[in-house]
């Protein structure tokens, strides 16, 4: 399916065609760079929790995730143990998946350790594909779900102790951060990925 023109006369990727949270995310956040370890860790965490689920579910629960995970304060989460783990698994405001909760706690500790090697933001950013390697999908069927860069990022993060960072999840993270632009060529947001002011 190619870009869809909505009731407002604007062409968008089909998943953002209808008014609501998904459209707002598509038009204001998806592909826009963020700044700082905390913002990168939040997006890494949310993409991991999205695995196997609809992104719409994660967007609806994002306020709950921020509250449950101390606004994604890496230093605080890195100290959490069984008490906090039990609290998270009982929190209906988030996705209560044991493996994903455990991965988030492990990823916080791995993020702290990564500071000795430039930090999470610089590490992820170093996998940005060159301009000539950017996809240019006309239809959703042409949108890639992994890439050579996302596969390398996945392997390297796993080597550094990260979990739930498979190639597909890392490709989604790279899309969200604007490292990869998979807005359809007919979408009004095509070409804006990676540009503009950083958002929180």
Automatic annotation (TrEMBL):
It comes from the Bacteria. Residues 129-138 have a biased composition (Low complexity). InterPro entries: Adenine_glyco, DNA-3mA_glycosylase, DNA_glycosylase. It holds the Pfam family Adenine_glyco. Residues 143-152 have a biased composition (Polar residues). Residues 127-153 are annotated as: Disordered. This is DNA-3-methyladenine glycosylase I. The lineage of its organism: Bacteria, Bacillati, Actinomycetota, Actinomycetes, Propionibacteriales.
